User: Fold this.
Amino acid sequence: MPQKEATFNRDLKYSQWHRYPNLGKRCYAINIDYVEVRNGKIVAFMEIAETSTPLSQVSWWFIDKWKAFHQKVLMELYDKTGVEPFIVVHNATLSQFKVFCLSWKEERLFSEEEFKTFLETCRWRQT
Assistant:
C-alpha cells in the first residue's frame, strides 16, 4: 500500500514484509529518512519528524524518549563513518525546524530560510 508523497508514491510493502511474524523478531530494521550528499560525498544522516508540539517545547528529553533507537543507530553510524547525524523536527507548515546535532549534543531552531541555508552544506560548526 503506497503512501502519497510530493513527488512519487513510496511503497510500504517491503516495510510490512520485513516484520514479525514474516521474519523473526531478531530481524529488526529502521528507516533513516535522508542521507544528504554534496558533491558526491555523504555529509549527513538525517531522521525527520513532524510534530504539532510547539518547537520551543521540543527538547533532548523528547528526542531521548521519542527517537531513542534512531539516535543510537545514527550515533553508531557517526562513530563508524564520521558523518554528522541529525534529528530534525519540523512544524506542519515547514516554516520552523528544530535540528538536533547528535555528535555535538546541540540544538538549534531554524526558520525555513535558515534551514535551507544549513542544508546547503549540512555543516553544524564552521571550520
Q: What stands out?
A: The longest strand covers residues 41-50. The mean pLDDT is 90. The chain has four helices and seven strands.
